[in-house]
Request: fold
Amino acid sequence: MRTEFVEALREAESHDSPIERIDHIKRAVTKEVRAADPAASVRFTDYFNHIAVPDMVLRWPDEARERLLFVRPSANPLWLEDDLSSLTMHRPLIFTLQDLATDHQPRLDTDPPAGESVSELSQMASAANAWIAGPSAFEIVSNARKDSPVMGLLGQALVRGGRGVSTGQTVKALTMSTRNAFDDAAENNIEPVVSGVAALEANLDEQQAGRFTRILRAVWEGHGGTEAAFPAVASLGPLTDDDVTYLMTTLADASEEFWHRVGKNVTSSQLGRLRIDDPSVSLQRFMRANLDSLSAKALRVSSRQVGLGEDETFPRWLVDRGCLAIRGQDWIAHIAARKVEELPPIDEGKPLALEEVRRGVGRGLRVTKVEFGKGDRAVSYESKERGSILEDDDLGRLERDVSGMLVEQATLALAGGGTMNVEFATRTAQGPTSSALPLGGLARAAVPLLVKLEHEEASKLEALLAVADLTSSGESVTEELPPSE
Reply:
């Protein structure tokens, strides 16, 4: 067990007041818990070593659940078995102040030998999704989490959903098995992965084991393994927001090919909910690899100056205000995944002259309709066959005949399919009715129309939104988009 914990218990014993002793014990246990899972918040109750009321309640940010923690001075399996029988409904964490005793003295002649009682207790705890662990188990977890993000994730998983009985030795074996599983998943070596999955599912409840196996499967598939070859697991399902956040945060060196494989199970909505730092290398690579497979409903541009201490790499992808976004030098374009209401409030723009619309439309795009406004009057001009109208002689004459007439809205046919409506007064582009658009096509068409870009920034935006042709070697070859007219 950690030296700090031993010293804290000694200090607790030195107090004459029972209240002070209990408070010091709870604070010492709290440090052990948070060394394994720093995100845990701990609330003390007014009880200590009660048969049914917890000593502490654990909670986590953004999680609508809690775990009850019971402190037990004794680590005798027979006593713990009695305690557990009354706590099974709570899925508790039982923290023993002593390491689990495997050489205890039976209370009665009929009591089982030490090894048998530990095994029975472990089976009982596993069935109840209860986790019984002592100081040495927490010491191994807290030390291991310093080695790698995977071990940090394991510490979180045990505190939040560990089950069974853990000693220092069993936790050490679990950390080694988990580390080997992730290393071998990247090499597509199946046997260590099978063993690792089995160990995780034996020591974690379904929620935490499912999170681990989903991430492990993402690593497996991201490095070329097939979904069919991945070992069968008890908890299946797509990557959650937390899973993707974890991958983005910890795998900064992953290739675009890796993110392309992982990206098939990730949505635009999820990307807007990620809790990742800005700038994020992983997000840039993910978007480059998956830009044309993601969909979106709308895009809105707002003015924004560079913040104090903000990274000045422009343009770049980031997550902002619950949306995926593109950050420019003095602007930001938020992207709504499913509905326009997801976008931030409108930053008012202004109608454009027809010539400005012409300059903002890229090659391969067709403007099929424009709506002019002047005062309280409006005129629309469109092609019934959805053809390009910008070079029509009639449209040119209309522009000359009605001076001061500006384009308030335009409809474009996108190169990859779909129709986009642009409203210049609100600086918003969206798909008609309930339809979604390819995210890459939406961004390539909308941003140059809604932002006046200098040549250098326009070139960088084209590079950011370029199509990455991923080769089998994991390298990417950029297919440059045609420049704007």
